[in-house]
Amino acid sequence: MNLDFSQIVPYIPFMLKGIWVTLQLVFVALILGFVLGTLIAIVKIMNNKVLRFLADAYTSVFRGTPLILQLMIIYFAVPQLTGYDIPTFLAGVLAFGLNSAAYISEIIRAGIQAVDKGQMEAAMALGIPYKPAMKDLILPQAMKNILPALMNEFITLTKESAIVSTISYMDLMRRAQVVGSDIYRNFEPLLFVGLIYYLLVMGLTVIGRKIEKRLRQGD
């Protein structure tokens, strides 16, 4: 095995810039997924059968098809139908955000249903409308229970974000591919970027464990 990491040294700043590019995409996609996922979760526990069916169908489609397929449809197929060329960042955010919303909706739904039903019944008995009771009483308790699961979703998004390299978004993975093409050596830049991904995931995992520990101490 002939490894020569000296050749990637001049490219290290270029590859390190991919950390922020990657995290920026993940952060925005997670916010979109959280907002949309919360709305879908609330719809899933409503009594409206039509809306519940649509919410379940949304979740089924996005959880039942490959993420890379969803990304390709948004980036390549939608412009074919609309005539609008979607920027790589927007395509990535939409694909990851819409996909993440399906998973987050299930996390939040489970969190809401884990809250004692008597609390909502008590709020209704006191004359508190459904929406304020859900927003001020039920959701805060549910969020406390699901924060570790949301952190896991964040970690998963960070790892899966490498898929956006397939549409030439200049994230960590794409930058490693560019360097590999430039120096005609792929193992070294891919190994370097793989180490960065590992450190990012391990850092997020430690943060998630600390959050979970703090939540347990607060119980």
UniProtKB/TrEMBL annotation:
Chief location bin: membrane
Annotated keywords: Amino-acid transport, Cell membrane, Membrane, Transmembrane, Transmembrane helix, Transport
Start and end residues of each ABC transmembrane type-1 domain: 19-208
Signal peptide limits: none
Protein localization: Cell membrane
Keyword Hydrolase (UniProt): no
GO BP annotations listed: amino acid transport
Membrane topology: Multi-pass membrane protein
GO molecular function annotation: transmembrane transporter activity
PROSITE patterns: ABC_TM1
Coiled-coil intervals: none
Transmembrane segments: 20-43, 55-78, 190-207
Family under the similarity heading: Belongs to the binding-protein-dependent transport system permease family. HisMQ subfamily.
Record's protein name: Arginine ABC transporter permease
Lineage, opening ranks: Bacteria, Bacillati, Bacillota, Bacilli, Bacillales
